[in-house]
Amino acid sequence: MEQNSSKSVFISYPFYIFISLLIGVIAIVGIRDLWNFSSPTYTALFSFLILLHIGLFWANTRQEENSRWWFFYYPAQVILIVVMVNLPFANDINLTLLGSSTLCLIGESLGLWGNTRRALYLGVFLFSFMVVMLYFAVGRDRLLIAVSSMLVNGGFIVLLMVMFNQQLIERQKAEELAESLESANAKLAASAAKIESLTLQNERQRMARELHDTLAQGVAGLVLQLEAVKAHLNTNRTERASAIVEQSLVRARSTLADSRAAIDDLRATSTNLSDAIREKIERFKQATGIPCETRISVNENQLSAETTNHALNILSESLTNIVRHAQATQVKVVFMIQNQNLQLEVRDNGKGFDVNQKTSGHYGLIGMHERARLTGGMLSVESDANGTCVQFIVGRS
Questions:
Q1: Which residues have CB under 8 Å from 212's CB, separation 6+?
Q2: Position with higher pLDDT, 43 vs 158
Q3: Which CATH class is domain 272-397?
Q4: Does the pTM exceed 0.70?
């Protein structure tokens, strides 16, 4: 509806001015012919009919979407043409008027409705009407010549409107494409903002896990030890307080080392995965003195950097838990990437723990499960009196 309305406004003035001038010139010749060779009555009738004919053209610019108007407009125009071409002209003005008016109606339908079936059907009807009128006016012998003359003289109007409609279609396609591109750019901008927000949220969660794994647990332990020192000093048990202070110093140094390691991990990760694994294990061995058997196979690494980064953090958390809770004397680490699958296993011979016990503050295990969920992998923790085994398996997504 909006398209047809805009087309009507676009073609109204130039096209209808052209129609008015064309039919007006024919009308002037017809009025002169009737005035010279007929009577004033026919002249006045023809003048009135031609003005009504042109006026209906202009009125149609505001009523082209009104279906009731069509049932009045086109029969009225056809009747006007029939009456006008049958007036007693001395020359062939009636034939010129018949062809010009009919072709203008065909061109108008193309201008209003474009290259559509509606315009095609109406054009076929009007052309058939013109041929029938020519048949009665000139007879069968001159019909072909008359139709050919009409097509040659007036066919350019139809051709002009068809080409004009095609240009409008192409322009509309270009406008729709521009609107689609604008909409797509807006969606991309919204998606980029959403991705940025999610990235920031994930980064905050990652930093929260790193801070918990280092500062939170370390400082919480120091607070407990300092409270114990205060209690012993209040009861004059200085030797026990001194021993706890020594333990606190060891714990503070360990927490500081872990914090620095976490900061290093946040800043950058080694581009060589094998070196990054060995670096973490070597740091663990130097800090604890616990022997660690390793089996590393990462030659067929086809996983994303995000997945391997989560695996490295699960390895770090597992080693940290061994230091703090396991009281182990031997550790085994397996880190393998084969056939587009990653398998991480960290096993110790420590005292173990109850994996089903729901104790608040076990954010290290929670963080490992979060990392496994983010990668679409599977994390299992098995523990008994003979030790603990943490296993992380993930395939290529």
A1: 363, 364, 367
A2: 43
A3: alpha beta
A4: no
